[in-house]
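Input:
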Amino acid sequence: MGKRQVDDRFKKFGTVSFTAISKINEFISELEKGRVMGTRCKGCGLVFFPPRADCYQCLGSNMDWFEVSGTGKLVTYSQLQFAPKGFDRDLPYSIALLDYGDYKVFGRIADNLGSDDIQVGMTMKTAVNRLPNGQINYVFESV
Amino acid sequence: MGKVAIIGVGQSAFVRSYPGSIRELAFEGFKDAMVDAKITSTDIGASVICSAPEYDKQRSPAGVFAEYLGLNPQPTFYVESLCSSSSMGLRLAYSLVASGLHDVVAVIGFQKMSEISSSESQERMGRGGDIQWESPFGTMMPAYYAMYARGHMERYGTSLDDLARIRVKAATYGQLNDKAVYRKPVTFEMFTDPENRMAGPVASPLRVGDCCANADGSSCLIVANEEKARAFSQKPIWIRGLGAATTSVNLAGRDLFSGLSVAQQASAQAYQMAGITAQDVDVAEVHDCFTIAEMMAYEDLGFAKPGEGKDLIGSKETYKEGRIPVNVDGGLLSKGHPIGATGGSQIRTIVLQLRGEAGDIQVKGPEIGLVHNIGGVGLYGNVTILGR
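Output:
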């Protein structure tokens, strides 16, 4: 008899994940397939990104997945010259917020974009990104 | 509800590395407030201990402090709302006293940030954001506030020079504060010299000089009902307005990136409770963990219209002699920011101002003072209005 399998897929999210077990672990499997997904409440239609297992509006817990597709506008960003513990090897990197209208996405800007290439208000898309340490996240790319 | 007063205020010096344990650090602020209030521990009906978690080995510090400060067998409470913990503690103390449950309550804030290294501290501070969806991208407080700085600059044309002027003001008064961690002069020219440490990049657009320092420290407020306040104190300072608000922890759940919604909501509540407007405030302490935070506070509190905070600092209206003096104790930028102790220290400054006991930084004859204390990146907002 082996140990009971623990679904700890979320530990793969980002350079360092601080969460292992979540009801929306399917998000990670979708990332592995190249898709960034949010959830939409089956009860009331409210849209969530980041995805949630539970709806605060109708208190339902039945969700449909939808793909974060198309483009958004860059709301704001910051390039870090210092990093918290565990992120030093990623420096320099930029964290940012992208507005898709119905929802916003918090993430990183793709490393291949220099500071001259980044402007608030620019159109960007969200893409899955493999990190050198084997982890997975998503980044914003120019279109 | 009866009136509630602050009858004693105290704080330790804020220092880089406190040479003692957390209970000994808490004792310093507590003793200062007890001497100020001229009461003994048997006069206190309950204590409220305030800090952000995960800096200390000690679990449940409230019970340990209650014993060390001579506050057994009275009940004790532990309150946490990150950097606004002790303002939230004051809100709890107000309700405990106003309800009639206790006559006198001590609010003790503390933080010994030097228990851990600077990069560990950045990681913990960053985990005041959304640990599931933001922290895995490598977030930290300066970068979050930098995103607001960028938002403010894009929307209103605020410049790095405008932000530097806020740090220069802070240092003007920090030099006069013997409890501040940073007491050196800071000039505008330091920010324009790329070789100067103040101009060094941290998280664009914010520079070293835009950020406050970690510190160890404690603060204490003694809160009393009207009967006890009049019996114990010659100069009780009354709590006239309280406001508190929350918002989405993840920036993705927010709409405003040139101000803090929690500060706008908390100040509206506090003004209404006090029956005043922003124009009635004579002196203020605002949560300047970063220069941009003070800039946004000017506007969120109604001292300036949205986008006009830069004109307020540009014309020096927030200096001691100005229309609305702000952070004339040096602010967090000079004092340092021992998270759980910060709100209590801000409130102490305003109480001393209203009593006319602020020494070199005394503003002329203030009747009404305001404290703006923010937790996390605008996650928690607390505004407290005090009056003579």
